[in-house]
Structure formats: C-alpha cells, structure tokens
Predict the structure of DUF3696 domain-containing protein.
Amino acid sequence: MHKKLIIENFKCFSEQTQITLGKINICLGSNSVGKSSVIQSCILFRQIYEQAKLFKDTQIKKYNIQLNDIYGLQLGDSEHIKSSKDKEDITLKLDEYEYKLTSVSESPAEMEVKNRYDVSEMSAKKGIFSENFYYLNAERKGPRNYQLIDSKVINNCGVYGENAIHLLNVLGAGKVDTERCFHLDENKKVNTLSKQAEYWMDYIIPGIEMRTDDLMELRISRMSLRQPALDTDFMSPYNFGFGISYVLPVILTGLTAIKGSVFLVENPEAHLHPKGQSHIGYFLAAMACAGIQVIVETHSEHVLNGIRIAALKNAMKPEDISVNFFSIKETNGNVRHTVEKINLNDRMDLESWPEGFLDQEEEDLRTLRELRRNCL
C-alpha cells in the first residue's frame, strides 16, 4: 500500500505538497483547488511505470510520457501545467520513487522522464505498479442500450465505464472474494460476480434488476433493466436515468480489482440520491478493507459519512482513512493552494473542521435565518 504522494510544480501546486495515503483516501474541497491533480499525478505515475516495464530489458532509461489521450488525460501543453516560473521540472514522488518530468521542446504534448529504479521491485510492491490499473473518470458513460465490445482482452471497466456490460458478461459466473461479498443481508449468500453486483446495486439503488448479454456477431453487449415492484418487463436503460449506468462500473471495479492494486474514482456520487451516495461510500470503504487501495475525488459529505459508517462496522483504524481537504489560502497577500489532512479518532469523529470544509448546509441555514428575521 502506498503511504504518501508528493507533488511539486504541477498545475496548482507550485510548492512541494504532500498527500498522506491510507487504505481509503478522500479528496474533498471546492472546484479547481487541486483534487484532480492528485488523480492525474497517479495516472502519470502509472504511465511512467508502463514505459519502464516496456523497456525493462533494454538500455533505454529515458522515456517520453503522453499528457493527453491516455487514461483520459487531457493536460494539453507541458509548459501550461507547470505552476512555477522558477522551476523547470515537475517533480512527482510516490513513496521512495521520485521522478522529474522535463519538457520536450519539439513535442509540447510529451514530457521526458528518466528511470533509475528496478522495475521488478516496483512490480512486487503492487499498488500503482500492479498488473492491472483501475481508474474511472468523472465523465462516465450514461444510459446505453448496448456497448461496443473491445477487440482486446477486457480486464477492467474502462476509463469511462465503456466495458462494464461486457465485463459483467465475461466474468459474471466467477467467484467474488468473501471479504468483498455483500454482508448486510444474511439471505444474500451467492458469491458469483453477477449476484454480488446485483446485491450491491440493490443496496445503492433499490428495486432494480439487470439483464445483460453479448451479441458477438455484432460485437455488442446489451443491458436491460426492470423494477419488479412495477410488474413490468425488462426495458431500455434510458427509462431509468443516469444513476445506474454511472454506479455499475464502480461496483464492478471494486469487486474485480486485483488485491493489492489501486482504484482511482472520480465523483462516485454522480447522479445518486443522498442515501445512495452514503451507500457508495460504504461500498468503497468495504473494498478498501478487502485489500484494494482506493483514492476518491468527491464533493459529497454523504460519501464521507458512508465511509465512516463502514469504518466503524468493519473495525477500520483511523490511520486507514486519509481525509484530505484542498483549499486556497491567502497569507500576507500571497495566495497558495493547500492540502490539510483531517484526522479521525477511534469513534470516526473528525478531529478538525476547517473553514469551508463541508459547511455549506450550515451557511445556508444561517442565511435563511437572517432572511426570515428581515421578513418579520
């Protein structure tokens, strides 16, 4: 499991900034304060590792990594993502592995990296360097009657969830590890992937049944849904909104990810009711307990609360959960982006509550009270 990530001169982080990592890591804060930069740094690390692995048995130690179109990256020009005029390189450090990313003058959409580490040792540590890599972008595929089947071997849901239906069809009869199985209802005991996906989906979006199949001659995977309470037949996903399509890849990735690997997920709460947001937080924490290191970017206090509930139910330790609050602070006229780790105690209470941290409800209620007084 990775312990810390250090970022310097990348996007909003001009100064060296450290993010402490645990089994499950929550990145919270307003828009454009650096949360996505953490996810993107992890993706760049993955790409560096893949290049190092590709040239493992050669004398080549310098590689160019792409800033766009790999794992959903869209970083643009290398000069535009450097935040300090006084520093030439971007520095990324994950545990003991530190890299300098240098601009390539003739190719502004690439950066050069020199590797000085043993690739076999990196692979043995797993995490970002695991056999498979799992990342779900905030912009996932919405409702579709079908998805195209990729010609390559499928071992994940894809960056946008574009492989989710086919993955469920291919692996649906396989067994899910006991520690990842749904444990909140003793009557739900079948441990196949298809059933476990159904159990967890029902926990997050109650009353929905899924049916999937592959049409290999057309190279498509189909999905249809129904609500047994309405006594209707299976219908198009378009009749059920975005929530199901957005959350299914999250569930499948959690249930199928290799133990010891990292799962990056942006906005798992998208298109979910607050209860569903809490329950997806619970699910992600349960997967972290089962050995998947999870890094979550979210705007939802419900996701955080669901994680805290799961922590108490599953006897997680406070250090297993890393809550990172991203904000902009002004000191003596100087504006800088900061990351503050908010510790939890054994009762899973937050030990600090900085200004701007999930306090909008309190702010709105205060404004309502003031407006009501003025109306009298």
